[in-house]
Amino acid sequence: MNAVIILVIAVLLVLLYGVSVYNGLVVARQRVREGWSDIETQLKRRYDLIPNLVSTVKGYAAHEQGTLEKVIAARSEAMNTSFHSVEGKAKTEGMLSEALKSLFALSENYPDLKANTNFLALQNELTDTENKIQASRRFYNSVVLALNTKVEMFPGNLVAGAFHFQKEPFFELSEEEKDSVQASPSVRF
């Protein structure tokens, strides 16, 4: 009789542990979804700012059509890339970031544009948005790390496999962004 009670208690403890691991995986998956939602929100804000920025620049730099078209094309491609593909979204967002950098570099050639309050306000808004995107990416990647660790570690991997929890991809820098981060700045006096 005592052996049966001990066996029942052991089975209950294993089941409770399994439920605890399962619930931890659910929480981690929800945090990943929350992190991705934060990224989507900030990217939407970025997409909404870009047309106003391009319109402001057009008035000052009409003959710089190629740069403006690159920004518009990169924005369109980024908006049309599915939010379900983290890798694809990261790539198109990297291309958009590079196009925006060239747009801001263009403003250096136009002192009137640099002094325009509307342009400055839009540039500040976009800079703020870029900072929020970076923060959202860091949060997303940290919760992806937590989920992926739970999915891979024993005994969580047994529960994860049984309930089809999968690893999620990180939102990583594009190759262009990696190159620009790794490039050493040239300093001249």
Report on the architecture of this protein.
With about 190 residues, this protein is mostly helical. It has seven helices and no strands. It has helices at about 1-60, 65-80, 85-105, 110-115, 115-150, 155-160, 175-180. Helix 1 runs antiparallel to helix 2 (about 65-80), helix 1 runs antiparallel to helix 5 (about 115-150) and helix 2 runs antiparallel to helix 3. The protein is rod-shaped, with a radius of gyration of 24 Å. The termini are far apart. Residues about 180-189 have low confidence and may be disordered.
Secondary structure blueprint with pairings:
Elements: H1 2-60, H2 65-80, H3 86-107, H4 111-115, H5 117-152, H6 156-162, H7 175-182
* DSSP, total strands: 0
Secondary-structure class: mainly alpha
Approximately how much helix is present in the residues? Answer: over 70%
Outline type: rod-shaped
Distance N to C terminus: 88 Å
Secondary structure tally, helices: 7
C-alpha Rg (nearest Å): 24 Å
Question: Which tags fit this structure?
Answer:
189 residues
Give the gist of this structure:
By secondary structure, this protein is mostly helical. Helix content is 81%, strand content 0%. It has helices spanning 2-60, 65-80, 86-107, 111-115, 117-152, 156-162, 175-182.
